[in-house]
Specification:
By secondary structure, this protein is an alpha/beta fold. The protein has one domain: Aldolase class I (TIM Barrel). The chain is built from nine helices and ten strands. The longest helix is centred in the middle third of the chain and has 15 residues. It is globular, with a radius of gyration of 19 Å. The relative contact order is 0.11.
Length: about 290
């Protein structure tokens, strides 16, 4: 029997990064040994994705450090995707001329990751001094030069080391005028993140995240969209489950647990990662 190749709308353009995040879920050693994709290989992959999806997100460890990233984005736009997005740590976007060139490719979504509300926390997470200043400058450059139809999405990866900064992060971003925010539950997918020093019990983190957002009235604020990504519904208070957003990047390490049988979201949620269950089991997860 032939194995069916799963086509994902998430295209990994590179396996290298200019950050060194303590929680990186893509830091397993095997990635260091993968051969960098050529531009032609990426173009063929984009063509395949277009046959199945009308959107694509260019990612990697850090796609902007590829010298041909602008060519990749231009080619993706030529395939008439409804949406071409880029996920980045935003550091190179601190250079105005690069930001302008990137925007001219015609992409219509940029997702930038922010790992703390201060240089001390963000740089501790990325292990790169000065990365907070560059990322913030990148966010501000996109806000300054983007067209109204471009979606600027800020990703906030939450883990045991930085979750208490969520309130300050949200205030910082909203004051800048950010309209779209994803709060990410870091998954234990690598040797770095597969530890209780990084990963929190999901129900504990989910309750904290929801309390911060609700107490500050962010869910009901007009022109502000907040999604809870990779928080299974059973890890969230009942009132928060409508903001659950499943990762569209399928992972065959997710399995069903007894709660899944009666879950209203089982068609959207693929279950719980085995590696998470090995850390905490299903303690605290509930549909009540």
């Amino acid at each position: 029997m032939h194995k069916i190749k799963v086509v994902s709308p998430y295209l990994y353009a590179g396996y290298y990064c200019n950050n060194n995040c303590v929680f990186c879920s893509e830091a397993d050693e095997y990635l260091n040994n993968l051969k960098e994709k050529t531009l032609e290989e990426i173009k063929e992959e984009l063509k395949t994705i277009r046959e199945h999806y009308n959107f694509v997100n260019i990612m990697g460890r850090e796609p902007t450090i590829r010298s041909d990233i602008l060519d990749i984005l231009k080619f993706a736009r030529s395939l008439h995707f409804k949406q071409v997005g880029l996920t980045t740590n935003g550091r190179l976007l601190s250079v105005p001329i690069f930001t302008k060139a990137l925007l001219k490719t015609g992409i219509n979504q940029i997702g930038i990751s922010l790992s703390g509300a201060s240089a001390s926390m963000h740089d501790k997470q990325t292990q790169v001094p000065g990365s907070f200043v560059q990322t913030m400058a990148g966010i501000k450059n996109v806000l300054k030069y983007k067209t109204p139809d471009l979606s600027l999405l800020i990703n906030l990866p939450m883990n045991r080391l930085n979750y208490k900064e969520l309130k300050a992060e949200l205030k910082l971003l909203i004051n800048l005028g950010i309209k779209e925010i994803n709060i990410l539950n870091i998954s234990p997918l690598s040797y770095r993140s597969r530890t209780k020093e990084i990963i929190m019990p999901m129900a504990q983190l989910g309750a904290h995240v929801f309390k911060v957002i609700k107490d500050n009235g962010y869910f009901t604020r007009r022109n502000l969209k907040i999604l809870l990504v990779e928080f299974p519904p059973c890890s969230l208070p009942k009132e928060a489950r409508k903001y659950f957003f499943p990762c569209l990047e399928k992972n065959n390490q997710k399995i069903r647990i007894p709660l899944c049988v009666n879950c209203l979201y089982k068609d959207k949620c693929d279950g719980i990662l085995k590696s998470y269950l090995e850390l905490y089991g299903d303690v605290g997860l509930s549909l009540k």
